[in-house]
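Run log, item B.
One chain of 520 residues. Sequence copied directly from the ordering sheet:
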Amino acid sequence: MKKVIALMLCLVLALASLTGCGGKKSSSTTDPENKTAPTQAADDTSSKDSGDIVEIFWQYPAISEVTEGFYRMEDALNEMMEKDIGVHVKFVPTDLMTSRQDATLLISSGEQLDVSLTAFTSVGNMVEDGLILPLDEYMDDYGSTINKDWISGNYYDGKLYSLPTAVNKHYNTYGFNMKKKYCDKYGFAQDDNKIYTLKELEDMFAIVRAGEGDNFYMTTPWNNTFEPLNYSYQEYDMLSGSFSAGVLMLNRSFDDLTVYNYFETEEYKAFCEMMYDWAQKGYIAPDASVDTDYSNRAMEDNYLGTFGYCEPESSMLSTTSAWGQDVVQFRTVDGYVKLNGGSAVNWNVPVTSANPGKAVEAIAYVLNNKAAATLIQYGFEGEEYEVVEDNGESQVIKFLADDITKLPYSNVYGLWGNRLTMPAVYPASIDNSKKWIAFENALPRDRYSPALGYSFKSESVSTEIAAVEAVMAQYCYSFNAGAIDPDKALPEFIAALKSAGIEKIIAENQKQLDAWAASK
């Protein structure tokens, strides 16, 4: 059964092939000597009030081949958007985790793509690769309904280059999401008010391993990201959205603006040693570091759960929080707010967009139109869900199947619209949004990264960044899966990073950060 860990961004893959919704050739020009850097977008000639219907191609993250229900959703959405803003959308299915690569292929070949998706990568990478457009000039005419607070973290070098996929909370908390059936089977008690240590989780793993036997695994790393335990290991802030430019060690202090090479810290050494130990104990599959189907593993019966995003309290969980199954969360990192280089999940307007203004307007429409966002996110009332609670202001909906991927249409990613106004999903409470706002308002300022508002300009060290990222890809997936002995491999890794130029990158980042802090 092919599904995905739908934890990320509350939220939280389509086949990478773009069947059924391929883009069309753009009229934008491409430098024949640089096929990866189209030089400009097509002229934005369509008037907002011309009455013409503008077709835009928009990446859409999915977890399987799209079904007939997907096309009914798309048709219904277009009825709304053609009438209200004169836009006809053609969704381009993509894998969430490879969306940037898919977009790059389309853009570099000159295909029209009007809205692209970047997931968990810094917007700066897209800018420096010449793939996306600055959006400032379109905001007054096409994006004025987008609240400025929603885009405060979407700037690079003083220019707006991305828009949020959804209006969501800034507060993030992480931990282990365990399938409830195993939590109940082994009698594990859970406390929302507790931050669990990894040693406490390891003790649970040992009990489950003894009870379930061989070929039963506790978790699997995601082989598209370098983050230890999907952010569930400790607090830090990747200022550029990548470890290559260093981090603030927020677990030590939320006031210190020292940029560290994360891989040289005692914390990372301890992490690598722990992962190696877990692998030796059989908690992680032997082939985990090279597993290409990592995103579906936690759905399988012989996996206990996965590390990633959590909710502040269990009453806010829904059955879509993970794999369409009930989960119990054991939080390991308390709530905090980080910069992370704008490295969230965002919409961008590629340089091959035929109409950048209308692309911005379409994004703004879905962010602000509750009916449109609810349609994309949840489908049709009476077909995919029923309303089980309605107080006139908010709703709770319940899906009409325990396994939502069996519905005519399903969308497991919470990447659409204003999440604070859309319906909550049963069994979450009807006041979920109010709870999120309360948690965020109650978060102490000393749990906010001191680098919020900073933007690292990496052009002067772009060659070194590419070299360092290549070294990271060579080692990090293996460390995350416990596949190599850190006593030998970690010193080799650190030496290779230094040879690739990580110290030069961090020094440049530190210089810019200090100047930014002094100018505040």
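Observations after the first pass:
- The longest strand covers residues 327-336.
- The radius of gyration is 23 Å.
Flagged for discussion on Thursday.
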